[in-house]
Write a structure and sequence with these properties.
The chain is an alpha/beta fold. The protein has one domain (14-207): YjeF N-terminal domain (Rossmann fold). The protein has seven helices and eight strands, in the order βααβαβαβαβαββαβ. The protein has helices spanning 13-25, 30-48, 64-78, 97-108, 120-124, 146-155, 198-201; strands at 2-3, 55-60, 82-87, 112-115, 128-132, 159-163, 185-189, 203-207. The protein has an eight-stranded mixed β-sheet with strand order 1-8-7-6-5-2-3-4, with helices on one face. α3 packs parallel to α4. The radius of gyration is 16 Å and the shape is globular.
Length: 216
């Protein structure tokens, strides 16, 4: 599940898209990849910081990175965390089928979900914040409401973990696209992205999402 880091295997955004496309052609669905990403991320975090009874907020966007966050939230709760989910936009704006499926699961299990606004008291009591706002495909400056949300995360004193890549970082160049999450740890999926480094991602771990290495 947890893989050793190697700069030789760093991949570009196009590489990541090709790998996902190839996995689908070989029969691995994007829904499976999302489930593996969220579940295995929860296990890695639990190994570092036992999640039982921890107050945890998962900040989610409306794309597949947010979908990974929805899955993570479910598995974190299974591991005993007290989980709240913050959706940066309205749930009606969730863009992908897989993310919609996993958001519906959270609603069916009556998770604490906040859309667009998060009470300050919730943020203050968070032990851990998980950033699943923006994935590796972002181009151009971070726009609202994400910019303000990222600033709130950065102003928090909670231990912050980004899923795949810190939101607001160009995955190919490492450039900060106006503003970016400043995590204490980043759990990246399948392989490190070329733009990732300690300066923008802090402690980096690579997590298996079910795609054998070396295949396209």
């Amino acid at each position: 599940m947890l893989e050793s880091l190697s700069t030789d295997s760093m991949i570009s955004v196009n590489d990541a898209r090709d790998i996902e496309k190839s996995a689908q052609e070989k029969g691995i669905t994007t829904l499976q990849l999302m489930e593996n990403a969220g579940a295995n991320t929860a296990k890695i975090i639990n190994d570092k910081i036992p999640l039982k009874d921890k107050n945890l907020i998962v900040f989610c966007g409306t794309g597949n990175n947010g979908g990974d966050g929805f899955v993570f939230a479910r598995h974190a709760k299974i591991l005993g965390a007290k989980v709240s989910v913050f959706l940066a936009k309205k749930s009606s704006e969730i863009r992908t089928v897989d993310a919609k499926i996993n958001f519906k699961i959270l609603k069916n299990y009556q998770f604490d979900i906040y859309e667009k606004e998060l009470p300050e008291e919730q943020l203050k009591k968070a032990d851990i914040i998980v950033d699943a706002l923006l994935g590796f495909g972002i181009k151009g400056k971070v726009t609202e409401p994400y910019a303000t949300t990222i600033q709130k995360i950065n102003n928090s004193k909670s231990f912050t973990i980004s899923v795949d890549i810190p939101s607001g970082i160009d995955a190919d160049t490492g450039e900060v696209l106006g503003i970016s999450v400043k995590p204490n740890m980043t759990i990246t999926l399948h392989d490190m992205k070329k733009g990732m480094k300690k300066e923008n991602s802090e402690e980096i771990r690579v997590v298996d999402i079910g795609i054998p290495k070396g295949f396209l």
